[in-house]
Design brief:
This protein has 447 residues and is of the alpha/beta class. Helices cover 41% and strands 20% of the residues. Strand 6 (142-146) and strand 7 (149-152) form a beta hairpin. The N and C termini lie far apart (66 Å). The model has no long low-confidence stretch (mean pLDDT 93).
Length: 447
């Protein structure tokens, strides 16, 4: 081929392309799964859980005061103090690491570590003696029973702390704070990062109705009619409630097998949660680089790349980082500077320009597929809500740093939404931090 893509590679990557017809089939299946998750009779068997968040009010811009936010969702967590004034907010924050030993240790150790960091942060910011409301972003599958009560369904993203699954994580945090006895904190709300993303965008843009994360994991929340959220516990006088779809689990029952490849099956079987979070494993930053690596290994072993000569680094699981995909696709067409840097890092200095063109093509196939999978999901939610104009608030490293992800999404969603519906995609500013404070602020507004 004149663009340097080897015919066999182009042919074998065809399975990574998602057609318009496949997207529409996916939308039909996802809508079915969403309705199963929302329904009382079908929820227990459903894979897309559609948890009720109990957040029923969006910010109106009149929220005022000082709020703490705690953001736990990956290998780091953040503590923030946010001061809301008229159309302005001031924020101080600090990132704390979670050592691997704590990620797979006991739940008590995890929450003691968090409480200690909270206490230190309050000292450093001179609010040690104040009693402050806190919004807790907890970005793992959570069955909420109220705004301040949520049971962990299962760990994801490399966590395996004992004694937390099935427990109320707000209570575990409160207990850890009480064990220290040195700070005064009111936990006003527990939320998922998708909810925070939606709230953070809604503060600026009142059309925001969907919060989407495409980062280490993938998930979305949206505004549902309360009457459709059959698991809503208690009496609601309000028409709407945010629903956390937990759509990363879409496909756990085989609904996505018709578009999965050998690379997906390999990523899944060698993960710490085989058979779980199937859609997430086709989309998110935790797995995208590994999908590319598996394709590169296959084509190298078939003699189609690198003259058939790989490297120990290429052949080792996890060595092709997702950031490499963004870097390689950021090269101008025909220029392989970033790609060559990555090849050198992987012990492949013998890669030719043609190899680089093919590596880039494989990256494009995998990232475009991720964007098209996300787009089918977003279009499903937009069509389900039926609002004339919807803003989608988005956060996460893949959306933020991949050079073409936004454009790929706009193009595919446009093809899939009901004609006449307008939508726009907006990068969220710190959903899990500012969003958590806003949920706490809105909750305090109600009291």
């Amino acid at each position: 081929m004149d663009d340097g893509i080897i015919d066999e590679i182009r042919e074998q990557c065809r399975e990574l392309l998602i057609t318009d017809k496949q997207s529409r089939e996916m939308m039909t299946r996802l809508l079915h799964e969403l309705n199963q998750g929302l329904g009382k009779k079908t929820h227990d068997e459903s894979v897309v859980k559609c948890f009720v968040t109990y957040v029923q009010d969006l910010p109106n811009g009149k929220e005022r005061g000082k709020f703490l936010a705690l953001d736990l969702g990956g290998t780091n967590f953040r503590v923030l103090i946010i001061t809301l004034a008229e159309n302005h907010f001031d924020m101080q924050s600090k990132i704390y690491a979670i050592p691997q030993s704590i990620m797979v240790g006991s739940g008590t150790s995890l929450f003691d570590h968090i409480a200690e960091c909270l206490s230190n942060f309050m000292k450093e910011n001179d609010v040690y003696k104040e009693r402050l409301p806190l919004g807790f972003t907890f970005s793992f599958p959570l069955k909420q029973l109220g705004l301040t009560k949520g049971m962990l369904e299962r760990w994801t993203k490399g966590f395996k702390c004992s004694g937390v699954v099935g427990e109320d994580v707000v209570q575990l945090l409160k207990d850890a704070i009480a064990r220290r006895g040195d700070v005064q904190i009111d936990v006003c709300a527990i939320l998922n990062d998708t909810t925070g993303t939606l709230m953070s965008c809604a503060w600026k843009n009142h059309n925001c109705r969907i919060g989407l994360i495409v980062g280490t994991g993938s998930n979305a929340c949206y505004v549902e009619k309360t009457k459709n959220a059959e698991l809503f516990d208690g009496i609601s006088t309000k028409d709407d409630v945010l629903v956390n779809t937990e759509w990363g689990a879409f496909g756990d029952n085989g609904a996505l097998d018709f578009v999965r490849t050998e690379y997906d099956r390999e990523v899944d079987s060698s993960s710490i949660n085989p058979g779980k979070q199937i859609q997430e494993k086709m989309i998110s930053g935790m797995y995208m680089g590994e999908l590319v690596r598996l394709a590169l290994v296959r084509f190298t072993k078939e003699g189609l790349l690198f003259g058939g000569i790989g490297s120990d680094l290429l052949y080792r699981k996890g060595n092709f980082y997702t950031k490499y995909v963004s870097e390689i696709e950021s090269d101008k067409k025909g220029d392989y500077m970033n790609c060559r840097d990555v090849m050198d890092e992987l012990g492949l200095p013998h890669a030719t320009d043609q190899d680089c063109a093919n590596v880039r093509f494989i990256c494009e196939c995998v990232s475009m597929r991720a964007a098209h999978l996300v787009s089918a999901g977003i279009a499903t939610l937009i069509n389900k809500m039926g609002e004339p104009h919807v803003t989608v608030g988005i956060d996460g490293s893949v959306y933020r740093f991949h050079p073409h992800f936004h454009d790929l999404m706009v193009e595919r969603i446009s093809q899939l939404v009901t004609p006449g519906i307008k939508f726009d995609l907006m990068l969220s500013e710190d959903g899990s931090g500012r969003g958590a404070a806003l949920v706490a602020a809105v909750a305090c507004r109600q009291q």
